[in-house]
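Deliverable D4.2, example record:
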Amino acid sequence: MSRDLLDELQSALGTTYIIERELGGGGMSRVFLAEETRLGRKVVVKVLSTELAAEVSADRFEREIRVAAMLAHPSIVPVLTAGDANGLPYYTMPFVHGESLRAHLANSERIPLAEAASILRDIARALAYAHERGIIHRDIKPENVLLASGAAVVTDFGIAKAISASRTDSGEPTLTRAGTAVGTPAYMSPEQVTADPSVDARADLYAFGCVAYEMIAGHPPFHSRPVPKLLAAHVSEDPIDVASIRPDCPRALAAFVMQCLEKEPSRRPKSALDVLPALETVTTPAGTRTDIDRPSAHWMKRGIPRALAALGILAVVAVVTISLLKSGREAPTNGTASTLQSVAVLPFANAEGDTANAYFADGIAEELATSLSKVPGLRVVARHSSFQNSGRQVDAREAGKVLNVDALLSGSVRRAGANMRVTARLVAVKDESLLWSDQYNREVKDVFSMQDEITRSIVGAIRGHLASSGKTSIGPILIAKTSRGTPSLDAHDLYLRAQFNLRRRAVPAAVTFFERAINLDPDYARAHSGLSAALEMTPYYAGIPADSVRTRAMNAAGRALSLDSSLAEPHTSLALAYQHAHQWSDAEREHRRAVELDPGDAAAHMQLARLLLSTGRANEALDEFRRAEEIDPFSPVIASWIAYVNLRFGNTSEALTAAKRGVELDSTTAPAVHVAALAHQAIGQNEAAIRMIDRLPNVLPWTGFRANLHAVAGNRSIAERIAREIESRPRAWAAQTALAWTYLGLGDTTRALDALERATDLHETWFVWYTVADPLYDPVRKNPRFVALLRRVGLNQNMFSRK
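Output generated by the structure prediction step:
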């Protein structure tokens, strides 16, 4: 793209997006990395090539893009905006920190089958959601699958269709011309090759089969052929059976892949809605499952009302357990451990494949884990750790080992209207023996009246194995603690959607759903509690100043506690509000109350530890972080904090071990990347530290850490460039903190102190004061301005002396 055209694109984007650099692209588009200035996040801008742009109507392209922009699903990279720059149509999408499946294939000699199955399930979820809404991708290929945070997401949904539909009649036929072939040769279905006008969603399933074939075999079908012969092979030649190329591939999985590659669309799976349960069937260790997990037209009906989604989640728990209470069935232990002291509740598989209700499986695990966490003598692994296995087949011994539990509770569910079919199983980790399992077909009726039975049934299923089984008060305690607090099914459904978004740090969406739930039921304590937590997160995940949300957050927390004083979450929200206002003793009181009310909440322990660190009690903080890690062993953030405190103590070996663990758990988590860089720096590995720190997202305040480390390492020009970038948006949340850290690295203590004072005025508290013992403050630690600043916020220098 010429400089003039690049300027035209920047002009069309205005100040909303600032283009940083070109990322590359394919034949259809050029791809640029840009920053969305208002939110400080990275986006991708894709501009149609000059040749292609000459053949499309920009107005019609934008209209077609609106259809693709309607897709909103965790496994789909959404379209954000579309427009025209000097006749070149463009569209924007979020920037995904990770690598493409194409790059992953290029860097891997052979992808493990379990990993391949996990990626395929994520792609299938995306296809099922889009196909249900009548949107066909038409260009499924490894380049359009991105891998990040242990999951796969699909990009460019609907783009091929938008290009095809917006073409004019000018120009010569091409592979992407409307009325001729649309797609990429290596992954095109026979009907795409022959330009069949009746192409439907089954073309995506053929491409899906090609991608699956490539992950298993190491190459796509008919590879290494020139394009004409490749296209002819798609139409007339059967590919070599993938099982003969990869002998360790389970027969059922190989047969499924070959079914997707059938020439006749009618012989492939009917839709992506059938693919997901089929994958669940063929990717188990045994290669088979019970009838509940096989595709069934009766259970594939769609159009379920939202209220029934809430009914479904609650009824799953109900039907799994109520039958146990009535029948008293409990499988013999067969010599397994006589007591269960710990259990992990894994997500129930949404076997129906209706990925529009992606929160459904999470909701099941949420309800079960909440109920079981109240059982005396039973430790329930934190939801975050259990969710690491979401959507994946779990080996009982391996999962039990890493989660450090005695048993795993898992299952699957299908829904159709008011009916439901459920399987559930409780497996002992010690020898993988089945403690209990069953299947149920039930009619969903008054779910809320079932709550007492649900709780007693869950306990009844495992009562004989509990160390506390002699305590007759288990049932009443549970019933009192697990009330949902609303008679409104719609309100509870919105609450579950809010929690789903909050766990994924989609904070603005979570706030909206919590508020909608409260509008339906103003006395819904848990919704008020969730809203308070979401509001307190907005400064860090939505760039909203803390002062602008503090009153709303405190009011929501207070309302929640007035409705239900047993809730722990509102106390944590209040504590964070007090911290922003530098009211440390009030914050500590609320944090400790939260831990007292819910000692099994890893987040509550972690927040208390942060406060202890901010007030100079590093030893106590480390103990509290370790308690949090015992509860949630798969949290990359907790591992990062343990590494950070060890660095403060000079325990570089322990710090590096914990830092590496944090990165292994999630290489995209900013705290993990930051602390890993500091750990490498501490042992003199400056090049490794720089490579690590440059992986941090270019958002505030992490840019300040990047600049500081570059400056300390001697890369002043990079640090100075970052400083100028931050100075260009002085009103952005956390900008002053980032500037302070940058100037400290550059040795400009006057500007650093100026920025620290402004950050304190703006209550950028969490960013500033949790690092107060950090060596980065050593250049100003004895400066009277810094000492006065500590006193101003209720802290003192003696709290942070380091031996």
